[in-house]
What does this fold into?
Amino acid sequence: MRTEYRIEPMVLDQLDQVMKLYDNARKFMADHGNPTQWPEGYPSREMIIRDLEAGHMFVCMSGRDLGAVFFYRTGREPDYENIWDGDWLDQEPYGVVHRITSGGGHKGAASFCLNWAWEQCGNLKIDTHRDNGVMHKKNQKIVAM
It folds into this structure.
């Protein structure tokens, strides 16, 4: 049976669940050779609340279960103005995904989030930390979109 997902704007009542997902993600990354991308306390509750209030935090739901969380917005991303050892495919308007993580118990939730973001604008920019081997492998499948 295929899991049905939907994307919704995050609400403040989900903050504790979201922070637990980020806690689990930090542990997972550390256990898989990436202990520095998200140091303890990142992202902070204050950052998530600020992004939520700006309308940029989204959750992936399966029924009443929170399967994943991510930051998404369209528009210029200052962090992406200069990149090294590569080029963006184009300079067209784009969407940005940051701080995506899933709970692990919802197969395909993160991919569902990225596909949703792609459908919003048809052009995405997302980066991964050099030590994040798990995301590098997943992104190899996504690059061809």
Observations:
- The radius of gyration is 15 Å.
- The chain has four helices and five strands.
- The chain has a mean pLDDT of 84.
